Amino acid sequence: MSDWSFVLRLNQPLTPEQADAFDHCDAFADGSVSYALGPEDPDEYAHHPDPAALSELSCDVEAPTLLDAVAQVARDIRLIPGLRAVGVRHDDTVTLAEAAQRYGRSHESLVELSRGQRGSIGFPDPESDSEGTVFYSGREIAEFLRGIGDTVPEAPRELAVADQVLRLAHELESLDVAPGTLRALGLPTA
pLDDT digits over 73-90, tens only? Predict the structure, then answer.
């Protein structure tokens, strides 16, 4: 099993009632999924939270594959009334271990590249160092790897598939589509 980090997009920001249900849901008791809850009256604060961030869950989930990890959280979030997953993305901030997992390299090879070994001039500088954990821009690492000849897709195939499936499921829930039409499109009807 591997740990997979991703951001799951929700159909809406969590209400205080949904946050309470989330906090008391056994499926989320291990702390692998977290949320941001905005203030009840945002106008009272000088700094307003990013509305998009209030509709997202930060996930660090153990599963055999990224697709399994996304599916697990998408399934579990439906335990909270009114919430459902509508998309998924990677956060740009990564450790070298997360970047290695995303971009098909060993952790050791990225450590060597970050230290300037193997003729790797131009490796991106760290963005921050938090309590001994060094964070980089995933986008900058991907650009660097492309520059030295690695084939790095914009998004891992499993992440792209999960995002498309979640978007499609969200759209289909708002339509009345006959089971025959779904089957003709190659989609399950159960």
Answer: 999 999 999 999 999 999
